[in-house]
Amino acid sequence: MIQIENLTKRYGSFTAVNDISFTARSGRVTGFLGPNGAGKSTAMRMMVGLTTPTSGTARVLGRDYRSLPTPTRHVGVMLDATAQHPGRSGRETLALASAMAGMPRGSVEAALERVGLTPREADRRVGNYSLGMRQRLGLAGALVGDPQVLILDEPANGLDPAGIRWMRGLLRDYAADGGTVLLSSHLLHEVEQIAQDLVMIGRGRIVAQGTKEELLRGGGTIVGSPDRVRLTEALQRAEHQVTARPQGDLVTSATAEEVARLALAEQVLVTELRSASDGGLEDIFLQLTADDAREGVTEGAAA
Ligand SMILES: Nc1ncnc2c1ncn2[C@@H]1O[C@H](COP(=O)(O)OP(=O)(O)OP(=O)(O)O)[C@@H](O)[C@H]1O
Ligand SMILES: [Mg+2]
């Protein structure tokens, strides 16, 4: 389990991570999503003690990462797969990580096999690895200590479609065995298919979090009608939220059935009725980050 409470990081007057709180639970894959520069890597670096928080706490398995005895036996970390030493072979890289974790020798071959690097590939210098191979090696390094928690920053970067599918299976199985997985991405599509829980971050702030189902349900219903005014009034009387969209339709917190019943009772014609989440989480994500960008502009103007 990973527990983040009111975590904040400021660089001078710039706030990279702004008071974020969430929990990544065991047995589940948690996706940490946000556009470029949102603060994902900064937050993850704070979780593993590489960056000191300005305020707030990050606890992994109930403790500060730095106070864990032999942290790599508990937490597998992959932050930047391109940072591996180019002169060592993949096997040497893993042997070092394995020795540091105090693992038996066989753990290296087991980790290589788990990530699909062949013995021949393992003997090549990391400097000659493709990006995808580096990601696999990075994942092997995270897994070599047989940890209960994985913290992975953009692990799918550079993987081809088959590689992404392979990684999805690996992480799902890992979580199904009781492990905790926190993985970041700026690509919704990628995370949508792996994660059960989602934390969305924009400009350092959490803009939405919950299970994937909760977030999808939270999208509301889109309603088209030639009589929007009456329909809006009826929805509001029933205590539903309603917003008129620039496209000329309405988005409401009511379910499609609730809208249909109200429209029938009011004798209002409805020409379109669908879940706002039909476009997938992407719509929600873009909407949320767009709102966040506007908030940033307002704040800037006020300052
Ligand atoms: N050491 C630092 N000094 C100053 N600013 C920093 C530092 N580290 C990060 N930042 C800033 O904090 C913000 C968040 O960066 P971060 O790398 O955490 O984003 P990210 O969500 O990981 O983005 P990406 O998807 O591009 O990897 C950026 O504006 C970045 O420039
Ligand atoms: Mg990053």
TrEMBL record:
Keywords, comma-separated and alphabetical: ATP-binding, Nucleotide-binding, Transport
Molecular function per GO: ATP binding; ATP hydrolysis activity
UniProt-listed Pfam families: ABC_tran
Domain ABC transporter: 2-228
Recorded superkingdom: Bacteria
InterPro entries: AAA+_ATPase, ABC_transporter-like_ATP-bd, ABC_transporter-like_CS, P-loop_NTPase
Family: Belongs to the ABC transporter superfamily.
Entry protein name: ATP-binding cassette domain-containing protein
